[in-house]
Amino acid sequence: TPKQMTWRVDARHTEKMESALKEKFARLKADGLVLFHMTSGTKSMALQGLAQLALYHNRTGKPISAVVMDPRSQCFDAVFPKAVNNAMGCSVLSLTEILQVHGSWRQHHSGRDMQSLRKMYAPLNALRALHKPLMQAVKGRRICSKDEAIDGYFLHGGSDLPKVVQEGLSLAQDVGAIQRLNIHGAYFSFQPACCYDPFAYLRNTWMEDWVASVLAKHDNGQWRGGFSSVKVNIKEEGDYQEFDFLGARNNHLVYWSCKNTQAVSPAQLFEIDALRDEVGGRDFHVAGLVHTAKVEHGLQQKAKRLGVNLVRVTGHHAEEKLLQISCQ
After folding, report:
1. How do residues 240-273 score in pLDDT, each as one tens digit?
2. Residue 253 in 3-state DSSP?
3. Are 72 and 198 in contact (CB under 8 A)?
């Protein structure tokens, strides 16, 4: 529709809401059909809005229609004054536009664009294959700086820099996480690119970029924006959440959390469920956890009830499962 208006009301105070809607409809000047979109919001918002829409029609004689969006068909169904399935098609919105609908927005320059990570698919997939032996090699060890100007960094807890760790650092450079990597004996030096701690990247962050690269690699033009490690302001400036991956496809937000843990916990599932509701809601969202741990049957059932999908990144057919869930 060429002219759109968003009206803010106090949903917790019915009398104030009624008064505000009466005033807004009284000031409304429309030349043609007036559409009232009542998909989101509380029941009282929908009912009072519908009542004032009907009164507006009775008073002015202007044509009206109240519609709801069906996320499965991507069409608007008319519910008043006449019920019509698939009455209107819905335009395909970008990630920015979908976030705006829910009062949120991506922080400027935040995140790595999924399309830029398409070319990083090969080294990121190599990191996926290297993950288990790499984690075994650095188990119980931490990165330390002996003399940054001379010797650079080393791994505390041993006198060597295992070959698998050297391979991991080289791959981190290939994907743009670090730059100017120099390995000399047990020591190494680098300059930060998109991260300051290469081992934090090798332990966990690579999964976020891997998700983005897989989805971009198989994109047939239906993705309308997506980022890894992206910060999104929720409703107001300064109140933000960080999403490991967040993208838009066919008017659905696709959200993946990525965790390198020994066990998946119920708290992690509840966190994903809460973030999904905060940024968009279950009907318009695909949400899931990309993880490295085995998940007990009971927790799998809990995830299913919450509508949280699970993909074990080191498991067989992880890429196929990620695509199937994200592109449903």
Report:
1. 899 999 999 988 899 999 999 988 999 999 999 8
2. strand
3. no
